[in-house]
Design goal:
69% of the residues lie in helices and 0% in strands. The chain is an all-alpha fold. Helix 2 runs antiparallel to helix 3 (32-71).
Length: 91
């Protein structure tokens, strides 16, 4: 979340959006394919940003959840020996 709240990152995203708009406006009327390419790249960027946001949120949630687990007492019913699926003996 630190990256997403960074002012420099926000400025770069805004600059990219503005550049896409400027590129679309700079095309000639007959350059339909070029405008579609620019718009498609913009939509791909928006999709990537959405995934980055979800990843950052999930990472933060996982970190919070793991810190709560560390603070919790170990489960008395859980036997660590059953976790060794290959049958290695603990010394």
């Amino acid at each position: 979340m630190e990256l997403l709240s960074n002012e420099a990152f926000k400025a770069l995203v805004a600059m990219y959006e503005q550049q896409c708009a400027a590129d679309i406006l700079a095309t000639q009327p007959q350059e339909v394919k070029r405008r579609e390419q620019i718009y498609a790249s913009y939509l791909g960027f928006e999709g990537f940003l959405a995934l980055v946001r979800k990843f950052a949120e999930a990472s933060e949630t996982l970190a919070t959840h793991q810190s709560k687990q560390v603070d919790a007492a170990p489960d008395p019913i859980d036997d660590p020996s059953v976790h060794d699926i290959y049958g290695h003996e603990q010394n």
